[in-house]
Write a structure and sequence with these properties.
heterodimer, A: mainly beta, six-stranded mixed beta sheet, four-stranded antiparallel beta sheet, 51% strand, globular, B: seven-stranded mixed beta sheet, 1 helix, 11 strands, 3% helix
């Protein structure tokens, strides 16, 4: 079964600084990988996904993530944090077999400091 | 709005009552997924349904929980005889087909259940 590890439940970043959220997965084969963002009292919004092809994936709001098979990682970055980036971020994985479900990490609560 | 609609947004139930959570998928989507989010945790898969079929219920508690997705109408997640531990946010997602992984899934805004 797949699993996802996100370290550091709370992440503080200064406005304008680099945002880096780490995601490592456990899967027997390269999975499908996703990053979602959740604003307070709202549902999850897809930021970006990796299914196949180019390992550097660009998403919405200036975020991007790189799939590194050798490191089983899919870290999320944004060069310059904005106040509106304050939210909770979830990494998720889905395998390539018949299983259609997502396995989520515990999430990172991002706080942006002015 | 063509997104996934969940209602109610907030639901308060006393211990022992029944909770019914509704999910209307994106128009044209025939696959629905339910997830539960406990405080300080990520989302946990509960059940995957197609119209009139339960495909995967491996994440559903064995007792008190049931789900359906009828031919007409929304998907329903039902919790009988609720207990305080059922307090959580319940999210529904949909996809147009079994290629949800390629699509990325569309999530609703969730139903926040509080058991008092």
């Amino acid at each position: 079964a797949q699993s996802v590890t996100q370290l550091g439940s709370h992440v503080s970043v200064s406005e304008g600084a680099l945002v880096l959220l780490r995601c490592n997965y456990s899967s027997s084969v390269p999975p499908y990988l996703f990053w979602y963002v959740q604003y307070p009292n709202q549902g999850l919004q897809l930021l970006l996904k990796y299914t196949t092809g180019a390992t550097l994936v660009k998403g919405i709001n200036g975020f991007e993530a790189e799939f590194k098979k050798s490191e089983t990682s899919f870290h999320l970055t944004k060069p310059s944090a904005h106040m509106s980036d304050a939210a909770e971020y979830f990494c998720a994985v889905s395998d390539r077999g018949g299983n259609n479900r997502l396995a989520f990490g515990k999430g990172n609560q991002v706080v942006v400091i002015p | 709005n063509a997104g996934v609609m969940q209602n109610p947004r907030h639901l308060v139930r006393r211990r022992g009552q029944e909770a019914r959570l509704r999910c209307s998928p994106v128009k044209g989507h025939s696959h629905v997924y339910w997830y539960r989010q406990l405080p300080e945790e990520g989302l946990k898969f509960m059940v995957y349904l197609q119209k009139e079929n339960i495909i995967d219920e491996s994440g559903m508690p064995k007792e008190r929980f049931s789900a359906e997705f009828p031919k007409e109408g929304p998907s329903i997640l039902r919790i009988q005889q609720v207990v305080r531990g059922d307090s959580a946010a319940y999210f529904c997602a949909s996809s147009p087909s079994g290629t949800g992984r390629n699509y990325g899934y569309t999530f609703g805004s969730g139903t926040r259940l509080t058991v008092v």
